[in-house]
Design brief:
single chain, 250 residues, 44% helix, globular
Length: 250
């Protein structure tokens, strides 16, 4: 049995003071967990998060990175700028980046490749909209996101990737996929990875569920055969809620 990887995506929330409060409260609450615990915080909280979590079982991630090492890319962050300060993970291709900031499968691939080259572990997000699901296109969309978004990713690189299946209709809506819906979609995603990388690599791959996951529904979701963890938005902003999710799977 794999352990689970539980990651909080704080999105654009928590200033430095709030971040310190949340992390300080969280550290003892998850200290006994065997699961991997990650917090993906805003850029301005990264240094503080790395410092505060040193020597604890909490790992720190960013929420995006660029594919170039430096240059005239206003507003972007290079992967090595993240590793230099002790960041280990990075969220890539979140649906909010795809929807609001023009992220495509091609840019997701570039960012993932660069993150891996710098030694970061990318958490690559995929997922269908409600319209795509209702029109029977869910599998096509997920297949395209995997095939295009992982085009140049080698099997060795895949070892260091986490995939997050986040149906767009479940993000921030309070509507969670049922345990079966989430598990079935993740099983399908895994089968697409298996076509390219083989069964062994696909079953070793960590695929999280994300979308309105909370302290009440986490246990059921995390007990499903193919769900290897969670990527949590809203509930990761409250230490007791996030720790309850982490601790819901022993
Ligand atoms: P919510 O948990 O707030 O639905 O957000 C999920 C998400 O987008 C995590 O990346």
């Amino acid at each position: 049995m794999k352990n689970k990887i539980i990651a909080g995506n704080w999105k654009m929330n928590k200033n430095r003071v709030e971040a310190e409060q949340l992390i300080t409260e969280l550290i003892p609450l998850v200290a006994d967990s065997k699961n991997t615990v990650i917090i993906c915080v805003p850029y301005t909280d990264l240094c503080k998060a790395v410092k505060l979590t040193k020597g604890t079982n909490i790992h720190v991630g960013a929420q995006n990175c660029h594919w170039k090492e430096s240059g005239a890319y206003t507003g972007e962050i290079a992967p090595s700028m993240l590793t230099e300060i002790g960041v280990e993970y990075v969220v890539i291709g979140h649906s909010e980046r795809r929807t609001y900031f023009g992220e495509t499968d091609a840019t997701v691939l570039l960012r993932t490749k660069a993150a891996l080259a710098a030694g970061l572990k990318p958490i690559v997000c995929i997922g269908e909209t409600l319209e795509e699901r209702n029109s029977g296109n869910m599998e096509n969309v997920l297949r395209r996101q995997v095939v295009e978004g992982f085009k140049d990713i080698t099997e060795a690189e895949l070892n260091n990737v986490i995939v997050a299946y986040e149906p767009v209709w479940a993000i921030g809506t309070g509507v969670t996929a049922t345990d079966e819906q989430a598990n079935d979609a993740i099983k399908f995603v895994r089968s697409v990875f298996a076509e390219k990388y083989g069964k062994k690599a696909a079953s070793a791959l960590y695929i999280q569920y994300g979308g309105s996951m909370n302290d009440a529904n986490a246990k059921g979701l995390l007990a499903m055969s193919d769900i290897d963890g969670g990527l949590i938005g809203g509930a990761s902003l409250v230490a007791t809620k996030f720790s309850a999710i982490v601790n819901s799977h022993k």
